[in-house]
Backbone:
């Protein structure tokens, strides 16, 4: 499945054979580039960035690295190779051949899922567009831009589906995806986490750890879809997503490492005087990003989720590896709810609890990342751990949104919340402090003082390689 880079839109879907689709996408392409110039990374459009471009869509496929100006990046349409004889794995149609064409009766539901997924991609680029000005190193600057161009490509992935399968209203949705703006009160992005600002690099690393990981879980569920083109496009997107989460996990790990070095060097937890981000502040940022990111899974009990499943559109994480009837009509799933002043588990219909089930898988994955950060802290002999707050903490979506819950899961009254909130979430002071550290470092090989250098460079290059040639 080599990708054809000779045509105007790189692709591995034989775009040349479908004139209607090719015209629709060629009409959208300049609008996308206009959007990129307006809302993409500010101040670096003319810089040459050492970017990775996929050359095949095979999981083992090789990538090409080279310096590229971002507006010249070859965004295109890449689907994972088809699985021969693929069948629908769950829901009412389980066992039937996967759909190669749009199942007409599910048109609206599928369009909604594709638009919601598509909307997050440009939103994240908008959120991150000013970060280049305060990069901690050229290595990090390059990683930011790699993430940004790939999120741009994820938008292409969803626009391909809209244009290929949804006709005129698909084209209209494709235009709307370029018109909404993150954080704009009049035309916001669809999901709340994508309207939050990403003002500093600690927020960026937390975002790529926590929020891009929602991307992993949502894409994995959509990769199970009975609508095969959606499945294949999501399977390829997942290979790109892995890099975004690496940027987040390794970014936070380096901040943790630097904090530990300063604690050891100065024998105090109060390391702000030495230009570090203390672990208490890191914990608050973590609390904030975890809560907004778990909101992205939707309500604990959701008829939308039940319908998507029954229709065969959105499965569970690793659906085909689960050993049950894949219909779930009589199954139950434990969920938490507030009762008698505490949070208690109860059995809910499994079909309605699918969002919660996916959130559970996500939380377990986050915990594995935290364990790796805690290993670093432990290796410095520091007696402190980063922890995930309780899932009911600081929620805006679902049954916990109405409650005040401490990070340890205690239900609080409003007064207790007001007294303690500042201990648990970044305050204006915390944010101002972190912001004060955000001074650009653009000399090859140098790294800002609040973060440890990366363990290794990119594509076998040294850390002092010129990953970005500033224009
Ligand atoms: N904010 O029945 P419910 C990524 C709405 S991240 C605002 O629970 P459902 C990326 C909901 O839409 C992955 N509204 O909903 C990461 C519904 O409204 P309607 C993005 C919310 O449908 C980093 C209503 O509340 N992909 O790729 O089961 C960088 C009832 O809720 C929110 C997807 O999300 C919220 N947080 O679940 C770049 C996959 N939560 O429809 C990229 C596609 C819920 O009744 N989306 N609502 O008007 C979905 O699968 C589902 O839409 C959701 C919501 C899981 C998001
Ligand atoms: Fe994405
Ligand atoms: Fe991502």
Residues:
């Amino acid at each position: 499945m080599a990708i054809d880079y000779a045509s105007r839109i790189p692709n591995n879907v034989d775009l040349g054979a479908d004139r209607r689709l090719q015209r629709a996408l060629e009409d959208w392409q300049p609008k996308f580039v206009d959007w990129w110039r307006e809302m993409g990374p500010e101040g670096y459009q003319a810089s040459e960035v050492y970017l990775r471009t996929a050359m095949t869509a095979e999981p083992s496929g090789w990538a090409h690295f080279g310096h590229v100006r971002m507006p010249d990046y070859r965004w295109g349409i890449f689907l994972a190779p088809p699985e021969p004889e693929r069948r629908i794995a769950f829901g009412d149609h389980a066992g039937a051949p996967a759909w190669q064409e749009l199942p007409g009766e599910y048109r609206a539901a599928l369009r909604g899922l594709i638009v919601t997924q598509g909307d997050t991609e440009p939103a994240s680029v908008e959120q991150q567009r000013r970060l280049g000005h305060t990069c901690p190193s050229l290595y990090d600057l390059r990683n930011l831009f790699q993430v940004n161009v790939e999120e741009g490509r994820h938008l292409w992935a969803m626009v391909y589906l809209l244009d290929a399968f949804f006709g005129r209203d698909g084209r209209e949705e494709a235009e709307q995806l370029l018109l909404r703006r993150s954080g704009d009160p009049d035309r916001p992005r669809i999901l709340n986490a994508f309207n939050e600002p990403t003002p500093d690099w600690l927020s960026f690393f937390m975002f790529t750890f926590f929020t891009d990981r929602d991307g992993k879980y949502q894409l994995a569920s959509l990769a199970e879809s009975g609508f095969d083109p959606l499945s294949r496009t999501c399977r390829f997107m997942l290979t790109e997503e892995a890099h975004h989460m690496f940027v987040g996990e390794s970014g936070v790990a380096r901040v943790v490492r630097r904090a530990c070095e300063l604690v050891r060097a100065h024998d105090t937890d109060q390391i702000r005087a030495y230009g570090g981000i203390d672990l208490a502040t890191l914990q608050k940022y973590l609390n904030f990003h975890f809560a907004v990111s778990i909101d992205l899974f939707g309500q604990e009990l959701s008829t939308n989720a039940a319908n998507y499943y029954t229709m065969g559109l959105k499965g569970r994480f690793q659906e085909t590896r689960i050993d049950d009837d894949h219909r779930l009509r009589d199954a139950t799933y434990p969920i938490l709810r507030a009762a008698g002043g505490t949070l208690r588990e109860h059995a809910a219909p499994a079909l309605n609890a699918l969002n919660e089930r996916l959130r559970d898988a996500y939380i377990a994955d986050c915990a594995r990342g935290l364990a790796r950060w805690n290993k670093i802290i432990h290796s410095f002999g520091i007696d402190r751990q980063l922890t995930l707050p309780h899932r009911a903490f600081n929620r805006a979506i679902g049954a916990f949104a109405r409650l005040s819950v401490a990070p340890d899961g205690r239900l609080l009254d409003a007064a207790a919340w007001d007294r303690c909130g500042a201990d648990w979430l970044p305050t204006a002071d915390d944010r101002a402090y972190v912001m004060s550290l955000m001074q650009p470092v653009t000399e090859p090989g140098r790294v800002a003082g609040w973060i440890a250098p990366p363990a290794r460079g990119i594509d076998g290059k040294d850390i002092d390689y010129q990953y970005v040639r500033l224009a």
About this structure: DSSP finds eleven helices and seven strands in the chain. The beta strands are 48-54, 63-69, 332-339, 342-349, 404-405, 411-412, 468-469. The radius of gyration is 23 Å. The chain has a mean pLDDT of 96.
